[in-house]
UniProtKB/TrEMBL annotation:
Keyword Metal-binding: no
Organism: Pseudorhizobium flavum
Protein name: 4-carboxymuconolactone decarboxylase
Keyword annotations from UniProtKB, A to Z: Lyase
Keyword Coiled coil set for record: no
Amino acid sequence: MTDSSRETERYRQGLQTRRSVLGDAHVDGALARETPFDRPFQQFITEGAWGTLWSRPGWTKRERSIVTIALLAALGHHEEVAMHVRATARTGATMDDICEALMHVAVYAGVPAANHAFKIAKAVYAEMDANTEDGGDKK
């Protein structure tokens, strides 16, 4: 991929939205780890997921965050669940929101999926609280 392919409006919007949800450190790390092999994939998710889906009008970032966590939990994508629970500090989704979403996962996708997602979310929230107590912020 050429640098000019990264200059599309959809890519720029996606990068802005991705940073607003996941934070600069996460996005900078992902871009730093990028190789020629996965560069097309990184462009795809930046334009598609972040530049199109997460940037659409109609739902707030909070609403998208809740739905995303529920879907990731239902599908067993544990690392992504953790990443998106961390992102709730930026999206405005509360612990109560995520609890309700995971309750839906239990009924519609199965108790084991929800059980594991609750375990992940509890660990992430504990980590976020510890970072706040140590003088950091939840972002």
